[in-house]
Amino acid sequence: MLDSNEQTLTLWNTKAMQATNLEDIDRPDFVVLDKDEQVILVAEVKGFPFDLNRNKTKENAILQLIDYLQAVKSLIPFAMFVDLENILIFRWNGKNLSNPIISLNTTDVLSHYEPKFSSRQIFNLYLTTLTEAWISDFCYRWKSEIPPASQEMAEIGLLQRLEGGITQS
After folding, report:
1. What is the chain's alpha carbon radius of gyration, rounded to the nearest angstrom?
2. pLDDT band, very low/low/confident/very high, at 50 (cuts 50, 70, 90)
3. What global pTM score does this model have?
4. What pLDDT is recorded for position 18?
5. Structural domain boundaries of the chain?
6. Residues 6+ apart with CB under 8 A from 14
7. Euclidean distance between CA atoms 89 and 157, whole angstroms
8. How far is CA 164 from CA 35, 131, 135, in A?
């Protein structure tokens, strides 16, 4: 049941209501829906100050991703973890999270959207916003005809699924 204080019902909320015990699970930082409004990716983003113990933060975030994926009754094929060093994309088969199928340098990708990325402190909310901007660029090409890492995204079949989609926080 939704909290009565909640003003809007997002598509993620609708999908989440189909799952069991989601009230015990934190929501992902954002999800990506394809053109048919199916959730195809969940993302967990950790910037400053969460980057102080990177190994533990990464481990906990990946466990959180697994919790999301297991709780939702529909199959969400991809999961993504982003920190200040790496963008990792995993494949989910409904039972197991793969090893990363893509590992990208965060600065290389996101400096396209924030030219001073490597020279400034990037807080969690801003890192999430930049990551969503990058994914949105695949969805509707708002900034680039060929967004960073397009080839890698195409090789795993994610680029095609992002086209015409939308991100949702």
Report:
1. 15
2. low
3. 0.83
4. 45
5. 25-168
6. none
7. 12
8. 5, 17, 11
